[in-house]
């Protein structure tokens, strides 16, 4: 018999975990993109980088961070989370990094030491959420750290699972589903919002339809369905987003600015690299020509995510 579902602290009602037990399926890209698109100065978002690789912190957002120290101390000792404010307008960050790799060893001895990682995380995160009054909290998780993933599943309110269409990624969805069901069985209030197909070919409509149909079979009985929005494959944009530490919206503006700059240079007759003024700053080269379609995918996903949360919050009688 399933355990009684624990009531969720009101401060944690908008916490969304993005996870898959397979790496390279778009978790970090989705978290940072949604965070940048949803956040406004008047509509604040908190992003928690719970991945020991720390890519959301250093690569995607270009923030130095604390290598995951604050989050590790919160898990181990219940210390207050250190929040980096306004890494983008309205977007706050709890940094990730390699120090989070300690969590597995801490969990292994938790029974002997009396360590309550889940309780510590709930308490410290609820405090931050209450103080920040966030519209949504987005958590990026690492693929291989099972103890930390289990703690996150027992803390978060919602779960979003990104996947590619290859067998290894889909197997990662199935493995995560088992951990999710175990957490639910033990009383965790986490609810699956759906699966997002990432790095998809928008022209492969038959293939995409089959993958989504297969995923809906996996999700049968969970109350969730696949997100209608798919994130398209755009290799050039993916390289630029990480190399230049840009969000999708920022990349659209940067690509447009670069295009205007090139056009103006052509109209001036061009300027050879060797002839540039010594004090003239070298412009970051972008490979993207028009990343607006990818940015539109993320914008659509953001709307669908918030819409699904709102539907749940309105309740079955709405």
The CATH homology group name: P-loop containing nucleotide triphosphate hydrolases
Q: Roughly how many Å is the radius of gyration? A: 21 Å
In sequence order, what are the helices and strands, one letter per element? EHEHHEEHHHEHEHEHEHHH
Strand order of the largest sheet: 3-4-2-5-1-6-7-8
CATH architecture field: 3-Layer(aba) Sandwich
Structural class: alpha/beta
Number of structural units classed as domains: 1
Main β sheet profile = 8 strands, mixed
Bin the helical content.
40-55%
> Any low-confidence stretches, pLDDT <50, length ≥5?
1-5, 271-276
Number of helices: 12
Give the CATH class.
Answer: Alpha Beta
Task: Tell me how many strands there are.
Answer: 8
**Whole-number average pLDDT?**
88
CATH topology: Rossmann fold
Coarse morphology: globular
N-to-C CA distance: 30 Å
Assess the beta-strand content as a share of residues. 5-15%
Kindly list the characteristics that best describe this protein.
318 residues; alpha/beta; Rossmann fold; eight-stranded mixed β-sheet; globular; disordered N terminus
In summary, what is this structure?
With 318 residues, the protein is α/β, with parallel strands linked by helices. The protein has helices spanning 27-38, 55-60, 69-77, 103-108, 110-113, 117-132, 146-153, 167-185, 205-219, 235-243, 248-267, 292-314; strands spanning 15-18, 45-50, 84-88, 91-94, 136-141, 158-163, 191-200, 231-232. Helix 3 (69-77) packs across helix 6 (117-132).
